[in-house]
Design brief:
The structure is a single chain. The protein is an all-alpha fold and 108 residues long. It has one domain. Helices cover 44% and strands 0% of the residues. The protein is built from five helices and no strands. The longest helix has 18 residues. The two termini are 34 Å apart.
């Protein structure tokens, strides 16, 4: 357990904000729990629905004719790890390198 007096109040507030957001986002049911009981095809359909806005709006998923390459998009989204970052969190610091690809669903 974390001793309350050992953690700055601002950090406690940020942690509470994170859990409030994750609860509002999923009502306590993780995607992993749902996906573990689905077939591969149904899981791919669920991911396509979850990331449909990103698939529609990202040039990454478009071919040379500007049409969405759905087989590529589906194969890509099935490899994603869903993460939540809060205001003020650094995802990647300018000038540093990362082997990851990030798709922002909301925020800036």
């Amino acid at each position: 357990a974390i001793k309350k007096d050992a953690v700055p109040p601002r950090l406690i507030a940020k942690i509470n904000e994170y859990f409030d957001y994750t609860w509002a986002d999923s009502q306590g049911i993780s995607y992993e729990e749902i996906a573990s009981n689905l077939s591969t095809c149904l899981n791919a359909d669920l991911l396509a629905a979850r990331y449909s806005e990103a698939i529609q709006n990202s040039l990454l998923f478009r071919d040379q004719n500007n049409k969405i390459n759905y087989p590529f998009a589906i194969s890509f989204v099935t490899t994603l790890e869903y993460r939540i970052y809060m205001d003020g969190d650094f995802i990647v610091i300018g000038g540093s390198s990362s082997k990851n690809t990030y798709i922002m669903m909301e925020g800036e």
